Amino acid sequence: MNLGIKRLIGVHYYVHDLERSRRFYADAMDFMEIGCSSPGLEEAGHQQSVVFQAGDCVITCSRPLGTGGRAWRYLNKHPDGIGTIAFEVEDAARAFALLDHNGGTPITEVQTYRDDFGELATFAITTPFGDTTFRFIESHGYHGLFPGMDLYPEPRGGRNRFGFTGIDHITSNFQTMKPALLWLEHVLGFQPFWNIEFHTKDVAVKRMANGSGLRSQVMWEPRSGTKLANNEPYRPFFKQSQINMFHEDHRGDGVQHIALRAPSIMDAVRGLRERHVEFMETPRSYYDALPARLSQLGVGKIDEPVETLQELGVLVDGAGPGQYLLQIFLKDSAALYHSAEAGPFFFELIERKGDPGFGAGNFRALFESIEREQEGH
Fold first, then answer.
1. What separation, in Å, do the N-terminal and C-terminal C-alpha atoms of the chain show?
2. How far apart are CA 307 and CA 282, in angstroms?
3. Adjacency order of strands within the sheet including 149-157
4. Whether residue 54 has pLDDT greater than 80
């Protein structure tokens, strides 16, 4: 089955504080602010929206205006979080028919909008991703991102100085991910791409008092290259798992993070740190073990000095000679904003140098190095 997905466009993010989002995306991340909701859309939808863009990644942030709107309903159950993932498709009517035939649950029929510039056809479906819906969009020169949005004549805010090109993948957390995997395969036609399971302690050999682990399965749509990663907690310390902690903080399953592609992650991290963006800390022991780990992986020489990687906190993983990736994770929104209502969502930055994977070695190496640091104190 082929839905005709062309690309993953972006997400609709429901937030309590729209000005806080503007400071983060435009001032800190240097996204362009390209549009906002019209008065008519605000009155009809009971929410106020601002649209940010960097490369091909579009992020719409909306806050409630009174009660009854989608943003209000979402935030009545969750902290700030991703309410919709949007995909561009070749033919919305065909995608709708295929999804409906395969057991998908459309929220609306295909809706078509026209203006002087073009035409837009769109619809949304429910998903097993908590309260996150999927929207499919077919656009033919339509001047707005969706009906009722006003595009500015010139972008405001940032200029994407860090060169983010788009979304590499989106990762979601579940207490049990099998229903989502089956739905992605049998309803959307996605295929398995990559998987890992691990625990920071070798619990099969030695009884341990604690630890953290996960199972992860990446599903993809090969034609477009769209990748959705999915995590669940891994026994025996299910409740201590970072995945389960997300579930509790988010008050349900949902999107954990978005990975943005960066042409030079080193330059991006330097610039973001200058703008006081905070990243998850990486202990020194990770970098002490890095040369030996890269040798075991067969990566060989990398372009970046280990000292510089350590200075910036950038992680490295690889799949073979000369094939590796660089990645780093921002602190989650609750930590960035010092507010629990901002939620556990976070961003990842990733630069790929021939490795199509997802940093399997980094998952375990980073978790274990953090635990070694904790044991040393």
1. 54
2. 13
3. 111-114, 119-125, 133-140, 81-89, 5-14, 57-64, 47-54, 32-37, 149-157
4. yes
Burial of residue 76, with CB atoms counted within 10 A of its CB: 0-12 exposed, 13-18 middle, 19 or more buried: exposed
Collapsed DSSP state (helix, strand, coil) of residue 166? strand
Per-residue CA distances from 363 to 343, 359, 367, 370 (Å)? 22, 6, 6, 11
Model pLDDT for residues 247-272, shown as the tens digit of each residue: 999 999 999 999 999 999 999 999 99
Alpha helices in 205-252, H assignment, sequence order: 242-250
- What are the residues facing 315 on neighbouring strands? 327
Indicate the SS3 state at residue 86.
strand
* 26 φ, ψ (degrees, to nearest 5): -80, -45
- Exposed e or buried b for every residue in 19-45, given b needs 16+ CB within 10 A? ebbbebbbebbbbbbbbbbeeebbeeb
Peptide bond into 236 cis (omega under 30): yes
Q: How far apart are CA 158 and CA 22, in angstroms?
A: 10
pLDDT digits (tens, 9 = 90+) for 312-367: 999 999 888 889 999 999 999 999 999 999 999 999 999 999 998 887 777 666 56
Q: Which domains does the chain have, with CATH numbers?
A: 5-157 (3.10.180.10), 166-375 (3.10.180.10)
Q: Which helix (H) or strand (E) holds 268?
A: helix 265-274
Any idea which residue has 């008092």 for tokens? 209
Using an 8 Å Cβ cutoff, are 177 and 232 in contact? yes
The DSSP call for residue 208 is -
